[in-house]
């Protein structure tokens, strides 16, 4: 089997092309015509962070990132996401040559993928885990839609470079960022960084609470804990996510790593984001422009507003960086 099937079609998003297209059209139509004072897509916005939950949950949020994404010069699109199906130390690449969507297939750039794999000391994603994983697949229908809006024919669509980013130390994130730097600098490459933000709830092993709005002092709740008498739980979640988003916007890879180390915020794509931030920071240093290539957050949502300790929610963020 040389083509990875669209395994989440029919469950995480619509399988019928016409219905899926209508859904994406509706989500994209809700994004304003301008973002940060720019018409869309934002010129030079070749890197985005977008969520990967079922479209009913995160699809409207992801529309903001995809509306910003500039594919006008793209020949290939790197897609970096975390592993939810097996423990992975380091990074691994797909073994498939094509990835299916309900709209049509994307071709994997095997030559580039092999070069990145060798330079980064990466392994192969086991095919069964590749098919089961959702963090990369959830971006392909949106990417296909944006390619249709950008290019005259599917024959002109960019190839894809799917990479699963597993558990990495701070220094290893910088190493992988260095491997990707030359591709980041090339205007023919775009990057999709796949991540949800705070996963709050005992089912995620993360049920912290700040009774006074100070995330430096977090307590832990349990399913049987009483409803907090102070600010609602969702306010704590917002504070945690805002701190993480501030770290992302800072342009400092170390600041982002330190924020998550301190709060324990369950940002599932922390390592893909870390790798991207490390690469962007190296690029800014080469240009001698500290403010260059920083992420800008354009949309923040939560799947629900948690009030009771036995409830749960997942947060979604859309961001872009201009290169």
From TrEMBL:
Top-rank taxon: Eukaryota
Pfam (any one): Memo
InterPro entries, per the entry: MEMO1_fam
Alphabetical list of CDD domains matching this protein: MEMO_like
PANTHER family referenced in this protein's UniProt entry, alphabetically: PROTEIN MEMO1 (PTHR11060)
NCBIfam families: AmmeMemoSam_B (TIGR04336)
Family named by the database record: Belongs to the MEMO1 family.
Name this polypeptide is given: Predicted protein
Species lineage: Eukaryota, Fungi, Dikarya, Ascomycota, Pezizomycotina
């Amino acid at each position: 089997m040389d083509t990875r099937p669209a395994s989440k079609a029919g469950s995480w998003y619509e399988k019928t092309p016409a219905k899926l297209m209508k859904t994406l059209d509706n989500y994209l139509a809700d994004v304003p015509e301008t973002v940060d004072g720019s018409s869309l897509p934002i010129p030079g916005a070749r890197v985005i962070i977008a969520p990967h939950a079922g479209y009913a949950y995160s699809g409207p949020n992801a529309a903001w990132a995809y509306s910003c994404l500039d594919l006008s010069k793209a020949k290939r699109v790197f897609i970096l996401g975390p592993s939810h199906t097996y423990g992975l130390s380091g990074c691994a690449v797909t073994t498939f040559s094509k990835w299916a969507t309900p709209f049509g297939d994307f071709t994997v750039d095997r030559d580039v993928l092999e070069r990145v794999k060798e330079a980064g000391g990466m392994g192969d994603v086991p095919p069964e885990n590749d098919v089961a994983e959702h963090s990369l697949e959830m971006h392909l229908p949106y990417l296909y839609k944006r390619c249709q809006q950008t290019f005259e024919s599917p024959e002109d669509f960019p190839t894809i470079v799917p990479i699963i980013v597993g558990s990495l130390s701070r220094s290893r994130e910088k190493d992988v960022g260095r491997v990707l730097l030359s591709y980041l600098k090339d205007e023919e490459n775009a990057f999709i960084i796949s991540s949800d933000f705070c996963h709050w709830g005992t089912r995620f092993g993360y049920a912290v609470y700040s009774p006074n709005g100070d995330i430096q002092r977090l307590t832990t709740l349990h399913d049987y804990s009483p409803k907090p008498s102070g600010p609602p739980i969702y306010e704590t979640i917002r504070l945690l996510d805002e701190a993480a988003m501030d770290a992302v916007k800072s342009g400092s890879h170390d600041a982002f790593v330190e924020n998550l180390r301190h709060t324990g915020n369950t940002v599932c794509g922390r390592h893909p984001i870390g790798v991207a931030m490390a690469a962007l920071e190296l690029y800014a240093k080469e240009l001698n422009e500290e403010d260059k290539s920083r992420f800008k957050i354009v949309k923040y949502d939560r799947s629900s507003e948690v009030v009771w300790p036995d409830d749960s929610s997942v947060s979604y963020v859309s961001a872009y960086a201009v290169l």
